[in-house]
UniProtKB/TrEMBL annotation:
This is Histidine phosphatase family protein. It comes from Candidatus Allofournierella merdipullorum. The keyword Metal-binding does not apply. SMART domains: PGAM. Substrate binds at R10, H11, G12, Q13, T14, D15, W16, N17, R60. One of its GO terms (cellular component) is cytosol.
């Protein structure tokens, strides 16, 4: 039987990405650069046949999924488990201005405490791990495109690879970059990372806090 594979792609650039503003659950659309990034990702993935396409319900991820896959929007399956982490009152604010209360999110994820109205990293880990289990059971032997967000997809990678929270940001996944997971029941988390076209791993704290 064919191997189950998940192509995880972060959404394309938005205007809020440009100013390092936390988006979270705020529904910010792609900008023109983001749309171009998605078209370029489609070219990089030319030849990959997707059996199903899943996306966070937020428009920046849904449009990315449609542009990368070439599928019509109505065929893309919006899944709440893929939505971005909620930042509560931090949403819309520049990460460089939030100070020591927010800094652990990138610098020391294991000690991050969300603000009132925000979501914990453990919560994101639980729901993305649930999606992984769903994909393994419902799409055995298939290839899926999964479009999402920075924190949510890093949570999925952390769960899939059974990494500690200290390694939450260890796989670089900038806008429209792809990480590929392959099902492997012998691996600690049940999956292996077999490809990643991101760069600058470990640079998130410097980029968003420095």
């Amino acid at each position: 039987m064919a191997q189950t594979q998940l192509y995880l792609i972060r959404h394309g650039q938005t205007d809020w990405n440009l100013r390092a503003a936390l988006q979270g659950r705020t529904d910010i659309p792609l900008n023109e650069t983001g749309r171009r990034q998605a078209q370029e990702a489609r070219q990089r993935l030319e030849g990959v046949r997707f059996d199903a396409v899943y996306s966070s319900p937020l428009s920046r991820a849904m449009e990315t999924a449609a542009l990368v896959s070439g599928w019509p929007m109505e065929k893309i399956r919006a899944d709440q488990r893929l939505i971005e982490i909620a930042f509560g009152p931090y949403e819309g604010k520049d990460t460089h201005t939030l100070g020591p209360a927010f800094a652990p999110f990138f610098a020391d994820p294991a000690s991050y405490q969300p603000p009132e109205g925000g979501e914990s990293l453990n919560s994101v880990l639980e729901r993305t791990a649930d999606f992984l289990a769903f994909a393994a059971s419902q799409h055995e032997g298939q290839t899926l495109l999964v479009a999402g967000h920075g924190a949510a997809l890093h949570a999925m990678l952390t769960a899939a690879l059974a990494n500690p929270l200290e390694k939450f940001w260890s796989v670089s996944l900038d806008n429209c970059r792809v990480a590929v997971l392959a099902r492997d029941t012998a691996a600690p988390g049940g999956w292996r990372l077999i490809a990643s076209d991101g760069d600058g791993a470990g640079e998130y704290a410097k980029k968003y806090l420095g």
